């Protein structure tokens, strides 16, 4: 890891551990997130063009993100190999994971607060990182917060976004995909994700060739606990049914309002109470499920 990557990693970790907004003030003032994971990739990595085939042509490359940002601020855009991508994983706290693992019909209070206020902190961190990078003289933009970011209903892949944080994190070597489509990292799949595109040539990691390397089901056709946890059967051996999932997740808004008094939707049942909740179970040898 070179000096720039060390500085970025240190700054993200410092912010997560020290910033007061990483606190569940509406419950018990404990942290939303534990120490983060950070990864990097080259803006010219061919995988970002591959995402246009895998996800859809609407999915933006780092170069497209940077080009539109530079157009807005009246600057010449750097080339694809002159930019890099920074991705981070915010592991959800143990207390929140345990509480949500006990739920069967919808998200717990702590999970719901994390989904709303924890995600606000995530976006604050992305803004902070982009600002810090620009103070150092590096053009930087958080794609999820850019005016061009949106979600689409695609006929082929269903609901998707113009910048998939999960796929970007995969590109940065931070994890692989599970049966539920969740990204299983070395700290599991109960997390939130963020990223920034920066004017800095960065190297891509050596990624897993098997995109399901951390999923027990794809290893030995065992487990499927995430499927059992899903209250609407949106996860099966065929994968993840986005329509069923979305209908249930967005349908939880009324319950969350009535039980917890906040305005948000969510679920997270397939991310908790499962072998890959907070570890990579294949790497850790926890595969007898």
Walkthrough of the structure:
This protein has 289 residues and is an alpha+beta fold. It has a domain at 3-93 and 109-211. The protein has 10 helices and 10 strands. The strands form 4 sheets. Strands 1-2-8-3 form a 4-stranded antiparallel sheet, with helices on both faces. A two-stranded antiparallel ribbon has the order 4-5. Strand 9 (235-236) and strand 10 (239-240) form a beta hairpin. Helix 4 (94-101) runs antiparallel to helix 5. The longest helix has 27 residues, at 109-135. The protein is globular and about 50 Å long. It starts with a helix and ends in a 29-residue tail after the last helix. 46% of the residues are buried.
Please provide a brief summary of the model.
A hairpin with a 2-residue loop joins strand 9 and strand 10.
The parts where pLDDT drops under 50 for at least 5 residues are none
Largest sheet: 4 strands, antiparallel
| Helix percentage | 25-40%
Run of helices and strands: HEHHEHHEEEHEEEHHEEHH
Report, as a whole number of angstroms, the end-to-end distance. 36 Å
The SS-based structural class is alpha+beta
Give the overall shape.
globular
How large is the radius of gyration? 19 Å
Strand order of the largest sheet: 1-2-8-3
- Rounded mean pLDDT is 96
Number of helices: 10
| DSSP summary, beta strand count | 10
The fraction of residues assigned to DSSP E strands is 5-15%
């Amino acid at each position: 890891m070179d000096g720039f990557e060390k500085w970025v990693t240190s700054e993200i970790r410092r912010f997560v551990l020290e910033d007061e907004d990483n606190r569940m003030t509406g419950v018990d003032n404990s942290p939303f997130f534990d120490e983060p994971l950070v990864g990097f990739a080259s803006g010219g990595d061919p995988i970002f063009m591959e995402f246009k085939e895998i996800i859809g042509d609407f999915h933006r490359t780092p170069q497209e993100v940077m080009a539109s940002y530079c157009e807005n601020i009246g600057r010449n855009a750097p080339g694809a190999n002159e930019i890099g991508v920074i991705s981070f994983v915010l592991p959800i706290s143990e207390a929140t994971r345990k509480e949500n693992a006990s739920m069967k019909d919808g998200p717990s209070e702590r999970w719901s607060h994390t989904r709303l206020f924890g995600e606000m902190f995530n976006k604050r961190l992305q803004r902070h990182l982009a600002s810090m990078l620009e103070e150092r003289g590096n053009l930087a933009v958080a794609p999820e917060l850019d005016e061009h970011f949106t979600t689409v209903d695609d006929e082929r892949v269903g609901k998707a976004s113009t910048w998939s944080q999960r796929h970007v994190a995969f590109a940065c070597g931070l994890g692989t995909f599970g049966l539920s489509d969740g990204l299983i990292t070395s700290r599991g799949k109960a997390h939130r994700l963020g990223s920034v595109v920066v004017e800095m040539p960065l190297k891509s990691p050596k990624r897993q060739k098997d995109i399901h390397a951390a999923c027990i089901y794809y290893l030995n056709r065992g487990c499927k606990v995430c499927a059992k946890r899903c209250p609407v059967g949106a996860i099966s051996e065929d994968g993840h049914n986005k329509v069923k999932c979305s209908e249930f997740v967005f349908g939880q808004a009324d319950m969350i309002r009535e039980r917890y008094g906040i305005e948000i939707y969510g679920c997270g049942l397939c991310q908790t109470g499962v072998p890959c909740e907070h570890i990579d179970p294949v790497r850790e040898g926890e595969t007898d499920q």
